Structures are given as C-alpha cells and as structure tokens.
C-alpha cells in the first residue's frame, strides 16, 4: 500500500517505513503485524526506542513559550520544535500503519476464508472426481464384462458358422461331383442316342433306297409287261378289225 505524503516544515516528505528496533521493552514495527501479533495503537506508539514523545512535546512547548537568551538556546528550541513535528508525523504514521495493519488483517482474514472455501470446494471436487472415477471404473468394468461376453458369444457363433460353412462346402463338392457325374452320364447317353439315331438314319436311308430301287425295278418290269400286253391286245384288235374289213388307221 502506498503511503501518503505529509507536510513537515516547509517541504513535503514521503513517509518512509521505519526500521524495526527494540528499546526499553517497547517495539516499533516497520510493517504490518504478523499473525498472532496485535497492531500498535496510538497509546503504544507514544514510546519508540525508550523515548516518551509526550514528554518531548511538553518540553518543546515549554521551550517555544520561553525566550532563549543565546544562540544555543535557539538551536535547542529549534530541535525541540522539529522533534515535536517528528512526533506528530510519527503519530500520524503510526495511526496510518495501524489502519494498514487492520486492513491487512481484514484482507488476511478474507483470504483465509476464501482459502478455506476453496479448500472445501477442492475437497468436494476431489470427492466428486472420486465418485465420477468410481462410476467410470464401474461402467468400464461393466462394459468390459459385456464386451467379454459378446466376444465369447461371437467367437462361438464364428466357430459354429465355420463348421456350417465346412459342411456346406462338403455338400457343395458332393453336389458338384454328382452333377458332373450326371452330366457325364447324360452326355454319354446323348452320344449313344445320337449314334443310334445316325445309324437308324443310315439304315432308313438304305432301306428307302432299296425300296425305291425295288419299286423302280418293279415299275420297269410292269411297264414292259404292260407294253407287251398292250401290243398283243392292239395286234389282236387290228386283226379282228381286219377280219371285218376295217382298217385300224381309219378308226
């Protein structure tokens, strides 16, 4: 905290912190009192280093009212006057330091209170974090247990599916083998039937040609026979007409 300036004599002087020293059982501090140490009040501040400022002030007042007879007396009176001013300044300074000490104690009390509140908040936060950590741990263990069960179940299903796949593959190979065998038998049967059909076609063609040749031969023989018979019949008719005196060309 910045200390104010106090006018002493004709010039302004900034109050500087007084050094800590002890004299004749009384103590003067250069800063705020520490914990457990009460601040100085104006009554305690009257004595610093064994000097009674009230006595000095009385002497100074007496010296100011009298008339010194020589230069030494004037110098002594001047010293007393300055001492009285210093005493006044010191009293103001001590009062200010007391206020500063009270403010420091109030701030310290507030800081301690805030620190306790923060410690309580930190404690609650740690408890909450501990609860959250415990809950997360429990959830993690539960999830891990569920995951283990699911993994085991999926593993069993995978084993069962592999067995079913192997069985299906074996059945598929058997079906393929049976299909190939059936296809081979079918191809063999078709080839045999085709050979038989080709042979039958050849036989039928041969039979047809033989039949046609036979019919042609029979037709040729019948034609010759019919021509011979028609010639004979024509000759007979011609002779018969000739017997009747008729010419066949005229008819």
Which structural traits does this protein have?
251 residues; two-stranded antiparallel ribbon; 6 strands; rod-shaped; cytoskeleton; cell projection; cytoplasm; coiled coil
Polypeptide structure, described:
It contains two helices and six strands, in the order E-E-E-E-E-E-H-H. By secondary structure, it is mostly helical. The chain has a domain at 5-115. The strands form three sheets. A two-stranded antiparallel sheet has the order 1-2. Strands 3-4 form a two-stranded antiparallel ribbon. Strands 5-6 form a two-stranded antiparallel sheet. Mean pLDDT is 76; it is low at 1-68. InterPro entries: DRC12-like (IPR033585).
Brief write-up:
The protein has 251 residues and is mainly alpha-helical. The chain has helices at residues 53-65, 71-243; strands at residues 5-8, 11-14, 21-23, 26-28, 47-48, 51-52.
Radius of gyration: 75 Å
- Shape summary: rod-shaped
Instruction: Please state roughly what percent of the residues sit in beta strands, choosing from under 5%, 5-15%, 15-25%, 25-35%, 35-45% or over 45%.
Output: 5-15%
In angstroms, what separates the terminal alpha carbons?
Answer: 178 Å
Number of helices: 2
Topology as a string of helices (H) and strands (E):
EEEEEEHH
Q: Average pLDDT value?
A: 76
Biggest sheet, open or closed, and with what strands and sense? 2 strands, antiparallel
Poorly predicted sequence stretches spanning 5 or more consecutive residues: 1-68
Backbone structural class: mainly alpha
Looking across the biggest beta sheet, what order are the strands in?
1-2
**Strand elements, count:** 6
Helix amount: over 70%
